Fold this protein.
Amino acid sequence: MMSSILEDEYISKKGLNVSVKSVLEMRHLIEEWEDLCKRSLEDVVYYTPTYALALLDTVSKGDHVRFVVAQDGPVLMALLPVVLARLPIPAIRAAGSAWMSDYTYGTMPLIDRTYPTESADAIIDGLQTLRKGEWLLPASNIDGPCCQVLTRALGRRGIPWSITGQFERASISKGKTFEDYISVCINPKRRRELERCRRRLDELGEVRHETHTSGEGLGQAVQAFLDLEASGWKGQQGTALASNPATRDFALAAFASSDKSLRRRFDLLLLNGKPIAAGAIVFCGDTGFTIKGAYDENYSKYSAGLLLEVEVIKSFLSGTWAKRLDAATAGDHVIDQLWPDRISVGNLVFSTSSSASSVRLSIYVQLLRLRLRAKQWLKQKLKR
């Protein structure tokens, strides 16, 4: 049974109204929510209304998710969806964490960029009042503005915090021509391999790159992606989006719906009119997040997926449709060979306990590190 504080509203130290709302209540604040996304200090597509609700309606049923929100009158100033632990154990199991799913690759809150300090303080107020103890914000962009303003706010309050499980995520920003990118950012061996694959593919017929952002073309591109993913090893393992009604419904709601509040872009590489590779990009602000990709495994020796990626990079560097692309990966990925920039990602953890918070956090961090090592060890064993 959740505490009654979930239904209460109170005033933060900075004068913002802080409350915790249900998914149903957030549906009545869609316009305000979308407006906050436009004003957010950092682009966070996973917590935009269309993307988040697509998940909450399908894959991650939303009855266990609550939204910590800060408002200045009717205006949303900050937002973070969270999940409370059923049985929190001091220093062992977190009091709660930012809500995350298998299709969520970052958990930074939406924070108003005009008043970032006050908005970050309000989020911490909400978490601290909701439940004291250890809190976890997984896969945070630790060098990004949201994490920076949060950790400064924690420091001002004397709340201990730490970063665990760091890794580098690929990214690419504007600034180079495509020709400069090809000559500088891709090593010569890889460049020759890709050129050879493209020549061999051209010998099989007409190779074409298509982009779809709306309407019937977008729907057909989404279906092509679903079919390609299901035809490969993910389909055989039952992890393709089309393998499960819930994940398929999520894909259609997030990628193919007529909702124009979430920008989508699907890129296809076609051979003689048949899609052999597909990639999904969803946008928040000026950032595109490459959520999903798939290719026809019959053309794996031609590197069809990487050839499509080169076409996307060419379009990105020569176009105006985004200022930065985020790989939306959870660690090492084949895309690292092509994208030159890196984002430092890690789990932000802190303790709002009123007693022995530093000791509790230290124990909890050590347990997180042990769990990560055990997971990595098991992964290596399974590869052998």
About this structure: The chain is about 40% helix and 25% strand. The longest strand covers residues 161-173. The CA atoms of residues 37 and 132 lie 28 Å apart. The first helix runs from residue 23 to 27.
